[in-house]
């Protein structure tokens, strides 16, 4: 049976990260695979108009691209599929203390199309910790997902809520090619039944926050 997902050889998840019984859909059920999905994310450092991220499957087929607006280059990103259709708009909320970002469906920025909100867990951090609240979680008492990243160690992990259940892991790889042509390479493993478009969006925002930290 063929699945409409990036190809994967279907390794089994580890015992420490049990497979969710029900797919965790954030952007859409078409982005939830019944097996672990490995994605490669290439960040184009020197680029003008072709977008600043390209996401491929393990065979090199393009799955997503991420583009920035020329007018608000650092404050807005649009996640698009391989056919160029906009999936979500990622927008930084200006003048907030906790580095707050919001994701909307398509190219909308209207409240009715809000998908999730992301913000720092605290103002002072040695390692980046981000809390993610789905749009239905209006009280924001407990986060729906948590991102913990160490850019010194070049890695990050996405957890389900306040639990220790891992839903995705990212590792950053430096290659000779990436150094010569100005690209950063990431590999991401998304666990079964987890929305991998959502995970890509989280990593893009994490990278933007990291770039802000380096600029300070």
TrEMBL record:
Query: Which Pfam families has this protein been placed in?
Result: LOR
Alphabetical list of InterPro entries matching this protein:
LOR, LOR_sf, Tubby-like_C
Classify the source by domain of life.
Answer: Eukaryota
What protein family is recorded? Answer: Belongs to the LOR family.
According to UniProt, the name of this protein is Uncharacterized protein
Lineage, broadest ranks: Eukaryota, Viridiplantae, Streptophyta, Embryophyta, Tracheophyta
């Amino acid at each position: 049976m063929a699945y409409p997902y990036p190809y994967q050889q279907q390794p089994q998840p580890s015992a420490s990260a049990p497979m969710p019984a029900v797919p965790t859909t954030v952007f859409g059920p078409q982005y939830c695979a019944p097996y672990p999905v490995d994605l490669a994310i290439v960040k184009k450092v020197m680029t003008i108009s072709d977008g600043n991220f390209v996401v491929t499957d393990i065979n090199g087929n393009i799955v997503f691209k991420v583009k920035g607006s020329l007018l608000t280059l650092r404050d807005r990103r649009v996640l698009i599929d391989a056919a160029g259709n906009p999936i979500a708009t990622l927008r930084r909320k200006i003048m907030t203390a906790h580095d707050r970002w919001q994701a909307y469906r398509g190219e909308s920025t209207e409240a009715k199309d809000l998908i999730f909100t992301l913000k720092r867990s605290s103002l002072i951090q040695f390692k980046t910790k981000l809390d993610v609240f789905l749009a239905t979680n209006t009280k924001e008492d407990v986060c729906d997902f948590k991102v913990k990243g160490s850019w010194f160690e070049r890695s990050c992990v996405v957890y389900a809520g306040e639990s220790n259940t891992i839903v995705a892991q990212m590792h950053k790889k430096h290659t000779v090619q990436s150094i010569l042509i100005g690209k950063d390479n990431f590999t991401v493993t998304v666990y079964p039944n987890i929305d991998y478009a959502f995970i890509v969006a989280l990593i893009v925002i994490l990278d933007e926050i990291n770039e802000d930290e380096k600029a300070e």
